[in-house]
Each structure stands twice: as structure tokens, then as C-alpha cells.
Amino acid sequence: MRCRARSQQTAPLSVELRVDVGGVSINYLKVGHGPHTVLCNPGVMGTIWMDFKPQIESLDKSKFTLIAWDPPGHGKSRPPDVEYDPDFYNRGAEFTVKFLK
Predict the structure, then answer these.
(1) How high does pLDDT run on average in the chain?
(2) Are 52 and 69 in contact (CB under 8 A)?
(3) Any alpha helices (H) in the chain, and if so which ranges?
(4) Are strands 24-32 and 64-70 parallel, antiparallel or unpaired?
(5) For a tag on the chain, would you pick the N or C end, based on fewer CB atoms within 10 A?
(6) 10-43 tens-digit pLDDT
(7) pLDDT surpasses 50 at 9
(8) Domains by residue range for the chain, with CATH
């Protein structure tokens, strides 16, 4: 008995991409193809894979589209270096809004 493997083209389950936001190259990951979008915003020193690996791996990709990103100065989003001063969270929130556009 002979078995023949068929090649099937399937869309990748996750794709890491880059986008320029205000002169900063931002790395982000898009997983799944579902109608419900989930944005994963890592913690202060977090990264895509450090903070969201379990969610990325177990997400129902037919129901959800997950977008996780490395904020400026973290993970694969370099430069700039990050200043952890009193305005850190305000700048982060403003940058997140720019990233979402």
C-alpha cells in the first residue's frame, strides 16, 4: 500500500510584522483570523513572547485575531531607549493610540 502526501497551502497561524510609528520601527504579532480582535499590551518591561506565549499558543484562531506588540525600546522594537520617569505611562498610552491607527 502506498501513501501519498498531498501538499496543502494553509495560511500561517501567526505572522510577526513591523510598522513605522512616528519614526520608530515597531514589531508586532498577528495571530488568528477570527472576527473578534484582542490587543495584548505587555507590562512595563514585557515583550510579545515573554508576556503572551500561552495566549498565543492556545487561542482559538478561528474565533479571535490576536495582536500583540513590543512597545518602543522593548523586545524587537528598537530604538529608542526608554526613560522610566513619571510620564512613562502617559507616553506609552499616547504611543499605543498611534500604533492602533
Answers:
(1) 82
(2) no
(3) 48-58, 88-100
(4) antiparallel
(5) N
(6) 445 678 999 998 888 899 999 999 999 999 988 8
(7) no
(8) 14-77+86-100 (3.40.50.1820)
Distance CA 101, CA 96 (A): 9
C-alpha cell at 86: 513619571
Q: CA 28 to CA 67: how far, in whole Å?
A: 7
Q: How many residues does the chain have?
A: 101
49 closest CA partner among 66, 35, 37 = 66
pLDDT band at residue 100 under the 50/70/90 scheme: confident
Give the residue from 101, 37, 46 showing the smallest Cα distance to 72. 46
Letter for the amino acid at 18?
R
68 near 28, Cβ under 8 Å? Answer: yes
DSSP 18-73: EEEETTEEEEEEEEE--SEEEEE---TT--HHHHHHHHHHHS-TTTEEEEEEE-TT
Contact present, 51 and 70 (Cβ < 8 Å): no
The answer to whether the CB of 40 falls within 8 A of the CB of 90 is no
